[in-house]
């Protein structure tokens, strides 16, 4: 088995890359999705977030209010408090899932997609070097990352100028909490550049997949 970390800043195209590797047969674990599952009502992480941040982060139906949490985390500068609750639980869940995949398929390529592989400082003490055999970075110019974030949030709605500016500011606040690409690059085994068409990304994934598959054996 090969444990691959797939990282890249907000809007870089990690999920798009993950989908392309999954189509080749990689087992993809999306940290954002695992985080969302663990934040559901009834989960320990949900209870700890409410205990820490108060009822203002809970919607009437009991779900966490992600916009309120984002405001507290990024605009009020309390993201480390949120990370300290969520990241250890996400990392522990990933460890269990990886062990389970290894038992069923010892030659699997398991890909953990996360914006925060190098930044996550709240795991079980195992640093990224122990968690992964290879790291892939997806890069894109900063203005492209921000534009993709805004487009995804807009979700086909027409934005006012003020709404657009607020989303751009939100993207910039989140990027400021992520290690810049030029610092990540020397730590990575492979760099995929996502500054053109998705077909160009697909071509890069097609080149890399056989290398990963052989290394997994
Ligand atoms: C603050 C929250 C509630 C905002 O939710 P929202 O639905 O608006 O955003 P979503 O989760 O889809 O994240 C979108 C992108 O924001 C960036 N981002 C999210 N959390 C963080 C963080 N803690 N630090 C830096 N960037 C982050 C990532 O690029 C991510 O892909 C949510 O992002 C969260 O719980 N974050 C903390 C957990 C975390 O680190 N998640 C990311 C990897 S596990
Ligand atoms: N090469 C591309 N051309 C056009 N759109 C793209 C390209 N790559 C990604 N996108 C779009 O940009 C948005 C962000 O891409 P994606 O979700 O893959 O990035 P991400 O790195 O996972 O982002 P985040 O960390 O914010 O979750 C998506 O809506 C995606 O469809």
TrEMBL record:
Keywords: ATP-binding, Coenzyme A biosynthesis, Coiled coil, Cytoplasm, Kinase, Nucleotide-binding, Transferase. Its EC number is 2.7.1.24. Its main location: cytoplasm. GO terms for molecular function: ATP binding; dephospho-CoA kinase activity. The lineage of its organism: Bacteria, Pseudomonadati, Acidobacteriota, Terriglobia, Terriglobales. The gene is coaE. Belongs to the CoaE family. Pathway: Cofactor biosynthesis; coenzyme A biosynthesis; CoA from (R)-pantothenate: step 5/5. PROSITE patterns: DPCK. Residues 150-177 form a coiled coil. HAMAP family: Dephospho_CoA_kinase. It is found in: Cytoplasm. It catalyses: 3'-dephospho-CoA + ATP = ADP + CoA + H(+). It is an enzyme of class 2 (transferase). Catalyzes the phosphorylation of the 3'-hydroxyl group of dephosphocoenzyme A to form coenzyme A. This is Dephospho-CoA kinase.
């Amino acid at each position: 088995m090969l444990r691959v970390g797939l990282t890249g800043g907000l809007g870089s195209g990690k999920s798009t890359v993950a989908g392309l590797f999954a189509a080749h047969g990689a087992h993809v674990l999306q940290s954002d999705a695992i985080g969302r599952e663990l934040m559901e009502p009834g989960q320990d992480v949900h209870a700890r977030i409410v205990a820490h941040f108060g009822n203002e982060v809970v919607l009437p139906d009991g779900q966490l209010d992600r916009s309120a949490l984002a405001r507290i985390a990024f605009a009020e500068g309390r993201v480390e408090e949120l990370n300290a609750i969520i990241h250890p639980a996400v990392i522990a869940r990933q460890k269990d899932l990886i062990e389970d995949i290894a038992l069923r398929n010892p030659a699997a390529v398991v890909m953990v997609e996360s914006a925060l592989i190098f930044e996550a400082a709240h795991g079980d003490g195992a640093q990224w070097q122990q968690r992964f055999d290879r790291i892939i970075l997806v890069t894109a110019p900063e203005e492209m990352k921000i534009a993709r974030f805004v487009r995804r949030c807009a979700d086909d709605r027409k934005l006012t100028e003020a709404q657009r500016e607020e989303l751009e500011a939100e993207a910039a606040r989140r990027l400021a909490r992520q290690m810049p690409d030029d610092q990540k690059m020397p730590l990575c085994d492979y760099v995929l550049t996502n500054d053109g068409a998705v077909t160009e990304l697909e071509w890069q994934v097609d080149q890399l997949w056989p290398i990963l598959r052989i290394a997994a054996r």
